Amino acid sequence: MPTLIHPHFIAHYRRYFALLFIILMILTPTFPKVAPGEHLTQIQIKDFITAQTRNTPTTYYEGRLGPTGFEYELMHLFAEYLGVSLNMNAKHNPESVLSAVREQGDLGAAALPLLPATSGVHYTRPIIQMQPLVVYRRGLYGIQKPGDLVGLELGTLSEAGTSEALRELQRDYAALSWKESSELEVAELLAQVENGMLDAAVIFDHQFRLNRLFFPNVERGFLLGDPLSMVWAVPSGRGLGLLEAANQFLQDLEESGSLNHLINRYFGHDDYLEYVGTRTFLAHLDARLPSFIDLFQQAASETGFDWKLLAAVGYQESHWDAEAVSPTGVRGLMMLTHPTASEMGVDNRRDAAQSIDGGARYLRSLKNRLPESITGNDRLYMAMAAYNVGLGHLYDARKIAEMRGGDPNLWRDVREALPLLQHEEWHSQTRHGYARGGEPVIYVRNIRRYYEMIEYVERSRQQFFQLEQAGNDSMSMLPFELVPPLSQ
Asked: What domains sit in the chain, N to C, each tagged with a CATH number?
């Protein structure tokens, strides 16, 4: 005989399960359905992608040829891959980049390290490896191993990834301590080591190679910990279309060899002006310069410069090598960019006559375009600086010089201001942003040095020639190894 359930009992349990269902519906989070390609589709509709980045040498800055930087070039290629234009937002540090990606999108590209458990973002496949490196102030000895860092004034950048290596090290050396900053960039950190505010710092190896020439009192120490992976970041929760597209793009770039080519172009060498020893310069003076003296003298007569000054510029640019080509595409004896060559009517940059003539006229045009308030040698030195870094950055440095209470018409004050274009505190207040501001300072200094050496050798040879003409056959030509003091 079947068991009968009382109707009131059934009604009671119906109410119970209905209440339970309502509670579960309240407590269970609901997620809107996101199409896999929703974010990517939005980018394609608006026809541009916004990159959240930093104004640094390894990411993005305005260089001699216009916008440049390792990650800028990658982002530009990725935008072309998507068929959209590129919009840059470079007012960030590593920490604020991720916040901007979460809140605004579209892509974070700022030497970001692949770190675990980062909420609100997805990371792409690795792009390059970044090796932490200890650097220290010249004169501090015995910094050869991790334990030597204990007790030092040590600094690094927060959220850049280098602090992870220090935290790992702290497990073995509990007394290890360091300072972190989210406001500084690498050049500013190195400056603190240079001036004694810090004893040492941890940055990435490729960053030191790009900056070392400007900080002669900072020594390379030792590699610290394991390398980290540089990645891009995209916001999570908006579909995986953009992430998948970025990963496919990076994979294709790697398989084609183009990524490795770009890495070598930026980090496979020290992308800064080389200091050339006196013996090397004198060897080139005898072996190379005679072939170009007539061309320098002709260009000088047409532009009003001393031919020896133009020769010094040519040596600084290419070591008097008419076939020279830089990794950034400038070429020829005077290393003209393609736009500059076009502006000067030079159709073959490797033709020495065209290159010297075009370079001399370009230097003259820069000098003519400077404000009339800049006079004398100050005008010449600023024109040479603009030849290297561009008029826009030179004007930014003049503005900084004035902000610091200096005279924007004096090279000595502008020379002090130019390196500040490497510091976010200053370049954020300028029109053209970050620049390798230390480079034009070294550039002008080297040209002045080479000019003095050419003049010294020419004057000495003329003196010897006059003695020989007077019948002093016993006087022979001597090698000139003495370097004149560098005037500041």
From this structure: 38-107+236-267 (3.40.190.10), 132-226 (3.40.190.10), 278-447 (1.10.530.10)
**DSSP letter assigned to residue 214:** G
CA neighbor of 451 nearest in space, from 280, 332, 283, 281: 281
User: For residues 199 and 140, is the Cβ–Cβ distance under 8 A?
Assistant: yes
149: confidence class by pLDDT, cuts 50, 70, 90: very high
| Spatial separation of the C-alpha atoms in residues 389 and 170, rounded to whole Å | 42
Asked if 333 and 355 count as a contact pair (C-beta separation under 8 A), the reply is yes
CB 333 within 8 A of CB 314: yes
Average pLDDT over residues 12-35: 49
CA distance 198 to 144: 17
| pLDDT given for residue 37 in this prediction | 77
CA-to-CA distance for 393 and 443, rounded, in angstroms?
Answer: 14
Question: One of 62, 159, 317, 439 is an active-site residue; which one?
Answer: 317
- Using CA atoms, how far apart are residues 343 and 341, in angstroms rounded to an integer? 5
Is 317 considered catalytic here? yes
C-alpha to C-alpha distance for 302 and 304, rounded to whole angstroms: 6
Structure tokens at 249: 């793009």
* Continuous segment of H or E residues that includes residue 444: helix 438-469
Cα(16)–Cα(9) distance, rounded to whole angstroms? 11
Beta bridge pairs of residue 89: 52
Give the model's pLDDT for residue 456: 72
Long-range contacts for 14-23 (Cβ within 8 Å, ≥24 apart)?
none
Q: Look up residue 137 and give its two tokens.
A: 């102030």
β partners of residue 374: none
Say which residues have a Cβ less than 8 Å from residue 84's Cβ, sequence separation at least 6.
43, 44, 46, 47, 48, 49
Give dist(CA 155, CA 349) in Å, integer. Answer: 45
First to last CA, the chain: 114
Which of 230-244, 279-293, 446-460 is predicted least confidently? 446-460
Residue-level pLDDT at 188? 86
Biggest alpha carbon–alpha carbon distance for the chain:
145
Select from 463, 446, 457 the least CA-distant residue to 481.
457
Structure tokens given for 395: 């004007």
The backbone torsions φ and ψ at residue 130, rounded to the nearest 5 degrees and listed phi first, read -120, 115
Q: In 3D, which of 132, 166, 163 has the Cα closest to residue 149? A: 166
Which of 126, 193, 117, 186 minimizes the C-alpha distance to 153? 193
Instruction: Tell me the pLDDT tens digit for each residue of 299-313.
Output: 999 999 999 999 999
Burial class of residue 380 in the structure, from the number of CB atoms within 10 Å of its CB (0-12 exposed, 13-18 middle, 19+ buried) = buried
* CA-wise closest residue to 364 among 443, 304, 296: 304
